[in-house]
Amino acid sequence: MMAQDRKTSFLFSENTPYVEDLYDAYLSDDRSVSAEWQGIFSVLQRPPIADGNDSARSATPMSLRKQVAVQALIGAFRQVGARQADLDPLRWSPSPPLAELTPAFHGLGDADLDTQFSTADTHFSGAENATLKELLAALAQTYCGTLAAEFTYLTDSAQRQWWEMRLESSKARA
Fold first, then answer.
1. How big is the CA angle at 108 (ends 134 and 113), to the nearest 5 degrees?
2. Angle, nearest 10°, between helix axes 132-143 and 157-170?
3. Which residues, other chains included, contact 145 with Cβ-Cβ below 8 Å and sequence gap of 6+?
4. What does pTM read for this prediction?
5. Is pLDDT at 164 greater than 60 in this prediction?
6. Gap between the Cα atoms of 3 and 1, Å rounded
């Protein structure tokens, strides 16, 4: 059954020239293909979005750039936040501040602190969005508190995601 589906599917490699010809025709004149093909090809004309949220299609390039900067900031906390952790109870050798853990390093400023950003791929709360200020507080508490965890070197992505979920869902408290 599956072999038959492969032979009749428009995605099967023997059908590739046919689909390419249809797409070329669509690019020349979208009315030259059926409504079904118009729907399929019209999706290819929209820019891809990282988190699958269709509302991002109406976002401005600046807001998308800032969302990418927020994701880079989250990645920086996950990678080097442990270097900023509060592990010295006597405060004899405080950790030097790390530039990559600041919003400015990623092109974000004070004006962005009250801006809502997507929290996709984080485990801080059930909310889909948070202000940069809230996100910074959660990141600092999780990765720069009194518990340090270095896990981004792990090659198994499931293990890395487990650490992210465990640390971020509890903000490294339990």
1. 30
2. 110
3. 85, 86, 171, 172
4. 0.65
5. yes
6. 5
Please report the beta strands in 92-174, taking only residues with DSSP state E, as ranges in sequence order.
116-118, 129-131
For the stretch 55-97, pLDDT in tens is 555 567 788 889 999 999 999 999 999 999 888 888 888 888 9
Contact 85, 124 (CB under 8 A): no
Residue listed under structure tokens 């030259």: 32
DSSP state of 124: S
- Walk me through the domains of the chain, giving residue ranges and CATH numbers: 15-46 (no CATH), 58-170 (1.10.287.1150)
Alpha-carbon torsion (21, 27, 32, 34), positive or negative: positive
Residues of the chain by 3-state class (helix, strand, coil), percent to 5: 60, 5, 40
How far from the centroid of its chain's Cα atoms is residue 128's Cα? 12
Residue type, 33: V
Rounded distance, CA 135 to CA 77, Å?
11
Specify the DSSP class assigned to residue 152.
T
Alpha-carbon gap, residue 147 to 78, rounded angstroms? 13
Q: Give residue 158's identity as a one-letter amino acid code.
A: A
Neighbours of 21 (CB within 10 A): 11
